[in-house]
Inverse folding.
């Protein structure tokens, strides 16, 4: 089932999410619905807060990124088929020299800005079977993970912009929160009056 994606301005996007346990109700169905919702919106990642759930859960499928002709063959290979579920994730290390990449977000449609992030991360997480993993990721895969991880920490990519950039996009963000935007996927706006 395709779920509505929560728009910028909803308080759930600014909350630090809570861990879940193995007996979280209907987790398999939730994961299935989240993947379907993400694919329907042409996203490469989706976090539970983006569908209104303040829980530490996000998923990623970077395969669509692998078709970007601006990437090196090595980058394309690392992205192709990378599909994961992250439950109760904790980034334990970020290192390397920060680099900029133009990011967007399904909760903030039609806003894209350069965001600086470190290229290498170590993350501890549980997969969909609640098996524990500690892994290192780099480059664009690390960046997608960092972006989705920020969601479960109550942070949006727009929070990482300079005060000048924030002022420049303030009107567009206000319009998103009021539902004054055209999107081709279902969204839920903070004022609840406008639904798609």
């Amino acid at each position: 089932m395709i779920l509505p994606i929560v728009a910028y301005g909803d308080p759930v996007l600014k909350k630090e999410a809570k861990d879940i346990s193995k007996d979280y109700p209907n987790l398999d169905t939730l994961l299935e619905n989240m993947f379907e919702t993400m694919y329907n919106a042409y996203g490469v990642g989706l976090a539970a807060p983006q569908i209104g759930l303040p829980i530490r859960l996000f998923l990623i499928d970077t395969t669509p990124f692998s078709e970007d002709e601006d990437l090196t063959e090595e980058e394309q290979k690392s992205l192709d088929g990378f599909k994961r579920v992250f439950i109760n994730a904790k980034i334990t290390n970020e290192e390397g020299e920060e680099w900029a990449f133009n990011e967007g977000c399904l909760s903030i449609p039609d806003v894209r800005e350069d965001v600086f992030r470190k290229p290498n991360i170590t993350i501890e997480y549980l997969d969909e079977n609640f098996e524990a993993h500690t892994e290192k990721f780099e480059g664009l895969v690390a960046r997608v993970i960092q972006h989705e991880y920020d969601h479960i920490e109550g942070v949006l990519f727009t929070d990482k912009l300079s005060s000048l950039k924030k002022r420049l996009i303030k009107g567009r963000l206000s319009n998103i929160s009021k539902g004054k935007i055209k999107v081709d996927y279902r969204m839920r706006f903070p004022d609840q009056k406008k639904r798609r």
